Amino acid sequence: MKIPPTTVPDFAERIAAINDVVHGLVWGPFMLAFFLFVGLMFTVRSKAFQIRHIKLWLRMTFLSIFKNKSVRKSDNKRAISQFQSACTALAATLGTGNIVGVATAIALGGPGSIFWMWVSAFFGMMTSYAENTLGIKYRFKGKNGEWVGGAMYYMERGLNSKWLAAAFSLFCMLAAFGMGNMAQANGIAAGLKASFGVSPVVTAIVITAFTAPVILGGIKRIAGVTEKLVPFIAIFYILGGIIVIAAHADKIAEAFVLIIGEALKPQSAAGGFAGYGIAAALRRGVSRGVFTNEAGLGSSVMAHSATDIDEPVVQGMWGIFEVFLDTIVICTVTALAILTSGAYSMAEHLRFFTDNPGGELPNAMTGVGLTSAAFDTALPFGGEFVTIAITLFAYSTILGWSYFGERAASYLFGHKAVIPYKIAFIAFIAVGCLSGLNLVWDISDTFNGLMAIPNLISITLLSGQVIKMTNDYTRR
């Protein structure tokens, strides 16, 4: 029987329509409020731990890297060090959201969206802290002596809810193939073709060749790569951003005034046109904050659970540091580069929305185009610099998410599924480089949001244990 030529497009359109509805729910106002509520709840119940104990968590995380060798290197052959676990978690969160996502938030939500991104990150620090504390508490030793853990295990062992754990694992595995793999590979291929004329076929071969040995080597090899790659990426991008900001230092104060002022205005006005409004800024800021640091998704728990540390609270502090570095530091560098450089004009953006109701912004006014324009104002190779940064960020994201998806596949189908999962994950890198992925990107973003539902419910129900462990530790 011959299939009518309209069948596949019609099916894709139906999937897209269904996804639009689900996406609107999982990333809508209610869920964004849920993200904020959980972070606020942990902040209040811990008496603002991330502020009161800032010296403690900085000393136990970032500063300990330079003072304590055991933090950097583990003697346990079946575990990774605290620093390696943090780098693996950061590898997954430091991605295109730090560059493209911030620019998109400013373009669609206005400069005020950055303020709400900070708010989201401030509360998200404690959400991430809670996830990783529970991850250490409920992990266990596997048959081969390796640590087995992740958000699915505090759902199963802490709440006795296998169905929540299974749902989380399914969403995580699907998100790993989409947002953590194909979407990142596609971004690399598109960026290298636009900036350097590299064929997507060549990109697919090279990225696959560099990724396969790392993924097949397991968590020890992944951690060994990320502990070198992540610090380099962070320093590389931050220094580039600082050069741009320093070149426009006279605009820094103005940028902060714009960020805070626009965030708190019910409705702003620029160039005689209606402004973005507080609702747009809040929604874009919170959603981009969650997208960049993943606090509340439960994904990073898999990496943290593989560490050699015994104290849950200390590993939880690494979650605070990760959100701080990812959003408060790196996303802010992107935002200030855009706002101080003059690449973004609120009047021009609002004029476009007024003249083109419902229209999509041209590439130069949003996403990578806007960030590239900002870096071009101070670096002779600004666009190429941003492309290289996106390539490195996306590559690290692929490595981090490969392990998250592996743990989810192992939970759902047993250890026998790990090798087939890895082979499939590697194969899908090439698919991502060579395909158009707008629908895949949208669907995987939905799965990302769906992961948060069982995770936020679980850490809320287990919040008493988190607060007790915190209080016991700080009273010692």
List the helices and strands and how they pair.
Blueprint: H1 7-26, H2 29-45, H3 49-52, H4 54-60, H5 64-67, H6 69-72, H7 82-93, H8 100-109, H9 112-138, E1 140-141, E2 147-148, H10 151-159, H11 162-196, H12 200-216, H13 218-247, H14 252-263, E3 269-270, E4 273-274, H15 278-293, H16 301-304, H17 312-341, H18 346-355, H19 367-376, H20 382-413, H21 418-434, H22 438-461, H23 463-474
Helix pairs in contact: 1-22, 2-9, 2-15, 2-22, 7-13, 7-17, 7-20, 8-15, 8-19, 9-10, 9-14, 9-15, 9-17, 10-11, 10-22, 11-12, 11-20, 11-21, 11-22, 12-20, 12-21, 13-17, 13-20, 17-19, 19-20, 20-21
Radius of gyration: 22 Å
* Shape, per Cα inertia axes: globular
Helix content: over 70%
CATH architecture name: Up-down Bundle
Walkthrough of the structure:
The protein contains 23 helices and four strands. It is an all-alpha fold. The protein has one domain: Amino acid/polyamine transporter I. It has a two-stranded antiparallel ribbon with strand order 1-2. A two-stranded antiparallel ribbon has the order 3-4. A hairpin with a 5-residue loop joins β1 (140-141) and β2. α7 (82-93) crosses α20, α9 packs across α10 and α9 (112-138) packs parallel to α15 (278-293). Residues 268-274 have low confidence and may be disordered.
